[in-house]
Amino acid sequence: MSDVSEFPYLPLEDAISAPFWEGTRNRRLLIQWCTQCHSFQWYPRAICISCAGDCLEWRSASGNATINSWTRVHRSPAEGFVPQYVIARVLLDENVLMLTRLVGEFADNPTCDAKVTVKWQELSDGRALPVFG
Ligand SMILES: [Zn+2]
Fold first, then answer.
1. CA of 35 relative to ligand 1 center, distance in Å
2. Residue 26, Cβ neighbours under 10 Å: how many?
3. What's this model's pTM, rounded to 2 decimal places?
4. Residue 109 Cα, ligand 1 centroid: separation in angstroms?
């Protein structure tokens, strides 16, 4: 089973996602919080998906999540991705869904409803991707 040893490209960073990426440099999982309707959201956006307001701030997520769904990738979708690996949708304790990759024992035996915590897949520029295991 291939764990994530090297990520094949550097994800794009823009003005909206920059605070998230900066957080990953310190291995902090930041997600947006709407101060108007009091809800979290993932992924980073310019406005709140619940109330369409723009009163968004960044807050640290607990890093705790539950596996909601998963699939094992058997064929490489692009150059540099080495199968097999497990893509999962996890529900953060903050009640937002995140698409991620499972690592460790959960990559070998993924189970829906299992509790997982954030780990970090390092990128070559100092940022990191949140993965779970
Ligand atoms: Zn809102």
1. 7
2. 9
3. 0.91
4. 37
